[in-house]
Fold this protein.
Amino acid sequence: QVQLVQSGAEVRRPGASVRLSCKASGYTFSNSAMHWVRQAPGLRLEWMGWINTGTGSAKYSQNFQGRVTITTDTSASTAYMELRSLRLEDTAVYYCARDWEDLDNWGRGTLVTVSS
Amino acid sequence: QSVLTQPPSVSAAPGQKVTISCSGNTSDIGNNYISWYQQFPGTAPQLLVFDNNERPSGIPDRFSGSKSGTSATLDITGLQTGDEAHYYCGTWDNSLSTWVFGGGTKLTVL
């Protein structure tokens, strides 16, 4: 079965960077795009960007332009999301989600806490 | 970033039917498939409906979706207390080239 296993919780200071991982299994990694979505406490889902896992081409939300980079290691069936210049308001749970039949499989999420 | 419009909350009694609406425009719902997601507190969203009205395997037929023009709805029949969750609609926005979500609707089963 399809599984997306995300890396563990992270704590960062404002201004720092964080890199999260999402390891896929149970399907051919390069056949489905991967999205990253975050959810701040008590708030709605917020789309950050996605990557064509076959070509490596990524597209980002303008809300994160210049601060986020999504990459893949196809040999490891893993997608990565790096967010830079962290702010207090970046505290959220970050999800990866496979795009096959829309966002049909989601990771369990990684909590990123930004605190001074 | 555009946001699809959902009611903040809906409620109904066990066994009844509830409808959750999702409103957008021609750049998102009007020209793309819509999907619906269920999220329980502390857990990841789960796909309920894709391509407007298709259900992934394992999703009961009590959940059904439809779309008309720039709006979509999710119907849940035979409500159960276990259906209490947040529900989000989502689709692609052609003008922004981004995925957009609704603000979410909290379902309470009275």
User: Anything to note?
Assistant: The longest strand of chain A covers residues 92-100. Chain A touches chain B through 22 residues (CB under 8 Å).
